[in-house]
Amino acid sequence: MNAQTPNACDQALVLFAHGSRDPLWAKPIEAVAQAMHLQLGDQALVRCAYLELTTPSLPEVVAELSTGGVIQVRVLPMFLGMGRHAREDLPQLMNEVIAQYPHIHFDMLPSVGENPEVIQALAQASLRNLTF
User: Fold this and answer.
1) 10-15-21 Cα angle (round to 5)
2) What CATH number does residue 114 fall under?
3) pTM (two decimals)
4) Secondary structure of the chain: what % helix, strand, coil (to 5)?
């Protein structure tokens, strides 16, 4: 862990999602990243990374961030549930990038599906067009 206090130039948030063969699949994740970028401004970089079938991968994104001088990376799993990808695949990838980039401090955040606000937002959006 780097003893420096991170500043706007050296912090990043990586939205980590599964990926798909369909290139349109990534549009919602990229839209979330863009919305976060607009809200964060220069406070932190926001990037997307994917487990499989879509690029860039987490190691590719971390390599780019490291080259740019980032010293703190928070990884936000964009999964609704705590399946195998969140429990096994992502922690394995995190261990690999931690070993490869010891000068970067990494935090793996809880999956978005564990956030009560996300659960409520999904419920409200799902019910919006229903009539009973």
Assistant:
1) 135
2) 3.40.50.1400
3) 0.89
4) 50, 20, 30
